[in-house]
Amino acid sequence: MTSFIIVLMTVTSLPFAAFPEDLWIEVVLSRYVNDEIDRETAIELVGRDRVKRAERELQAVSDDVQWGLDA
Predict the structure, then answer these.
(1) pTM over 0.85
(2) Could you give the C-alpha distances from 16 to 12, 23, 50, 60, 70, in angstroms and in order?
(3) 50, CA 20 to 30 Å: which among 2, 28, 38, 43?
(4) Cα separation of 49 and 20, whole Å?
(5) Domain boundaries, the chain
(6) 3-state secondary structure 1-68
(7) What are the tens digits of pLDDT across the range 29-69?
(8) Is 51 exposed, middle or buried (0-12, 13-18, 19+ CB in 10 A)?
């Protein structure tokens, strides 16, 4: 299987007013999906709902990549 790095959001796409909290959430989730921190740590830092959503998004990307490789 091909490995790849997922970055969930770029800094330039964040509105300035929400920047600090949103950036923190994206950094934590990016570190989680790139196996830099474990699941429990990510849940403690940003909450279970956000971690579950990131897992669903990662699975969707993985499924799309696999579909593209099989095409």
Answers:
(1) no
(2) 9, 10, 21, 28, 41
(3) 2
(4) 19
(5) 17-70
(6) CCCCCCCCCCHHHCCHHHHHHHHHHHHHHHHHHCCCCCHHHHHHHHCHHHHHHHHHHHHHHHHHHHHH
(7) 999 999 999 999 999 999 999 999 999 999 999 999 999 99
(8) buried
